[in-house]
What we know:
Number of helices: 14
CATH superfamily of the largest domain: Enolpyruvate transferase domain
Strand content: 15-25%
CATH class of the largest domain: Alpha Beta
Structural class: alpha/beta
Radius of gyration: 22 Å
Number of strands: 23
Shape: globular
Strand order of the largest sheet: 2-15-17-16
Largest sheet: 4 strands, mixed
Amino acid sequence: MILxxxxxxxxxxxxxxxxxxxxxxxxxxxSITNRALLLATLAEGVSTLSxxxxxxxxxxxxxxxxxxxxxxxxxxANHIVTxxxxxxxxxxxECSLYVGSAGTAARFxxxxxxxxxxxxxMDASEQMRRRPMAPLLKVLRQLGCxxxxxxxxxxxxxxxxxxxxxxxxxxxxxxxxxQFLSALLISxxxxxxxxxxxxxxxxxxxxxxxTRRMMKEFGVTVEAPDPRTFLTPAGQxxxxxxxxxEPDVSAACYFYAMCxxxxxxxxxxxxxxxxxxxxxxxxxxxxxxxxxxRDEEDGVVLLPPEAGHFSGIHIDxxxxxxxxxxxxxxAPFADSPTTITGIAHIRHQECDRLSAICNELTRLGxxxxxxxxxxxxxxxxxxxxxxxxxxxxxxxxxxxxxxxxTPGIVIDNPACCRKTFENYFEVLEDTLSNLxxxx
Length: 439
């Protein structure tokens, strides 16, 4: 599908779905793909990564890995990448990198290169240039890295002049992004001494646990002597391995949200209860709203509410904040208000998501109240209109759900989905065709 400047969402509200459980396949996880790429460079030997996501974010990460001089082999058709790791050594001691809009590439590579011995100039898209980097840069300076920001202090672009680890204890604040801590943890085993990180803030701990679990799978264990401290014992080394990347639960959530919205039983292939991804918590939210969950060997099934309608909810979404947009999009169709809390940090993501959600729901005729770290959305009937996406992939994908129930919803700049799920609208149309016949 070649996406135009806008996309008209097919409304299926009056269509009768085919009987049975409807099965969907989504691409690999962005969060796991980009972590695995970095871990593979840190390992000694050749790692083969399967189920790799190919999107703007992962391509930028992969391009940076290649630009740094690592040998790779890419089989995009089969979603496989092999990486020749060098045990923590970076081939090029001096390099210029462009991370695009990929937050994982921006934070993970900055930490990795900030504790090497070299000179690295880092730049990013205009969108990523607006996203915070100061907490991570502050830590790297404490560890001995000299950093010169070209424009605004604490933001891209900047130059790192790194000198390895000059200290083995630091403190990082993750109120703006858990990626700051994940970035430091992944590279912490390069310290010649036990490395200790003290934590301020508590956002995104599910992603921290994902990072620790993947580090362990590649051979490095991070201890947590208390909830605010992480300790990486010295002398550990990553080992190369064959690694299967999970399907992207964040992507799956858009289709699971169709379950209560359209009263459909939905199954996403290979999404299992053993997933390490924090957005699995969104399925629990849908269950609290009236759905029923059934775990099967090859995927999780979500069944629609028996009552034929679903309830609003009051929920802290700090553990799965990427799905705040998704919940906000289906909330107008609930039978009671929905309040989402714990999401102040989403103001600093691809766009100010709190304001974007409120703006777009209001423009569609839905009452929405925006607080410092919360949203309250009231039941209502959206009217037709164009949805501004703010160059934010999650706004485009999340708000497309409204159009499944409301005629005349048009998504502006649908191509912004290329950041994480470049064929989302193609998969959406194929799914609707399988559910309802040709739309």
